[in-house]
Amino acid sequence: MSGLIFDSHAHYQSGQFDPDRAGVLAALPGAGVAGVVECATDHATSQGALALADQYEFVWAALGVHPESLIQENASTRTRFGGDWAAELAAIRPLYEHPKAVAVGEAGLDYHWPVPKDAQLALFEAQLKTALELEKPIIVHDREAHADTYALLKKYRPKGVVHCFSGSAEDALALARQGLFIGLGGAVTFPGAKRALKVIDALPPECLLLETDCPYMAPVPCRGRRCDSGMIAHTAAFIAARKGIPEQTLLETAAQNARRLFGL
Length: 264
Fold this sequence. Notes:
By secondary structure, the protein is of the alpha/beta class. Helices cover 41% and strands 17% of the residues. It is built from ten helices and eight strands. Helix 5 links the parallel strand 4 and strand 5 (138-143).
């Protein structure tokens, strides 16, 4: 499986990687990883994502503001911009000129945490407009906010991926018909992930991206450990077995999908 893994959604700037970040990233190609999209959550991590992309040939960057950054005290949205997300987006805008800035995001809606909905909706809509203006894909975060997320995606019709997909198979098919990719990670391997199984059954590999959201959501049999991009091999094996296709075929198709989406 050497060189077949493309992780379409990672967070290597997480503090969980502070003790050994360089070693983990340097080891990824040897674990079969050919590509990683490092996803930002604010201005500071947008700069950091580009720094990692400059340092590692196989890393690209997605730049944007996550809805949770509106309330996270250590996010630059609060510490540098005082909650003024519009000013933060304006500061991020020139960073998209970097040749390895391949997407807008991580952006979207999160109704799990007590983030003001009006601000979330306005922030997401602004980033959808940015994606269209720049002709870049958007990486969409949707947690317990399906109806509003889908409505805005239908309104703006961007190219992109709904990451860590948690909707129904019917929702997934509708989004795929709209031209969006569905991102699946380690959570699909968890016991009780019945909706995910229906999504896997419903979608052809040409509609899927593989991801980790690392350091979170390590797949079975790695649950409880810090996740990294190499663990996609377990997720891919699970999905491929479910679909009755070779793991290598799934990995190759998902990598091709990612490269096409991100223009690589």
